[in-house]
Design brief:
6-stranded mixed beta sheet, globular, alpha/beta, 10 strands, about 230 residues, binds adenosine-5'-triphosphate
Length: about 230
């Protein structure tokens, strides 16, 4: 039997640095950020606008690489992986809800989800169930541009959880929802966390939304201020 080398952490960030721009315009966004997320944890990340929350989530989701430091998934350092290796790991392990949704504009709501399942070799038969769970079955035949922002957001969440990823990374998933839909969504995430053991990292500006998580961390000056694992 393999010995588990991840110490119970499914996702770790060690000494992450990330800058944008160059020369005198360089913006040093992440400054040696450390974060450890336990398997099965539901974590909320809070912090002021522009502090680097989305930047952090993109690094954790292997969408881009850090300037320094590493992202470790299941005890495995992803630093040496090429673009293909990262894409493969992302496809297998991670579901991502983007702040700007990133739905495929030429596809219907239904096909946005069905495609996400098919590219992973999964049966797309669950698509209707997912659309219903997120309350967007009425817009299944519409393109994203024909949906309200809240409907697009719920569709983006349905797509991210469709393949039951081990790790769900969600960037303000309730940001465009009314309170009823926000509550429904949080219930769905909590259920995915409790029943399916999905690990969730959720960015939010709302203390109420963050309250649904098991732990809350705050970002300031490019680091997590209360990371005490
Ligand atoms: N691709 C990029 N190129 C240049 N600058 C960037 C890029 N991405 C982010 N930044 C800058 O990095 C900083 C952090 O951005 P980020 O999107 O991570 O903030 P955030 O905490 O998610 O903010 P918000 O709460 O408003 O979503 C900002 O000042 C932003 O201008
Ligand atoms: Mg952001």
């Amino acid at each position: 039997m393999m010995i588990n080398s991840n110490n119970g952490y499914i996702l770790e960030a060690e000494g992450l640095h990330k800058s944008f721009g160059g020369g005198s315009a360089t913006e040093h966004v992440l400054r040696g950020l450390d974060l450890r997320v336990g398997a099965g944890e539901f974590l909320a990340v809070m912090g002021p606008s522009g502090c680097g929350k989305s930047t952090l989530l993109h690094l954790l989701g292997l969408m881009s690489g850090p300037d320094e430091g590493s992202v470790i998934i299941d005890g495995r350092d992803t630093t040496g992986l090429g673009e293909r290796g990262r894409a493969e790991l992302r496809r297998r392990k991670i579901g991502f809800v983007f702040q700007r949704f990133n739905l495929i504009s030429v596809l219907s709501g239904y096909d946005n989800i069905a495609l996400s399942l098919r590219i992973r070799g999964l049966d797309s038969g669950r698509t209707d169930e997912l659309l219903r769970a997120m309350g967007v079955e009425d817009v299944a035949g519409k393109k994203p541009s024909q949906m309200s922002i809240g409907q697009q957001q719920r569709l983006a969440v349905a797509r991210a959880i469709a393949h039951k990823p081990d790790i769900l990374l969600a960037d303000e998933p309730t940001g465009s929802l009314d309170s009823e839909n926000a509550e429904n969504l949080l219930e769905l995430l909590s259920k995915a966390n409790r029943q399916d053991g999905q690990t969730i990292v959720m960015i939010t500006h709302s203390p109420m939304v963050a309250g649904a998580a098991g732990r809350i961390v705050h970002m300031k000056d490019g680091r997590i201020t209360n990371e005490n694992h």
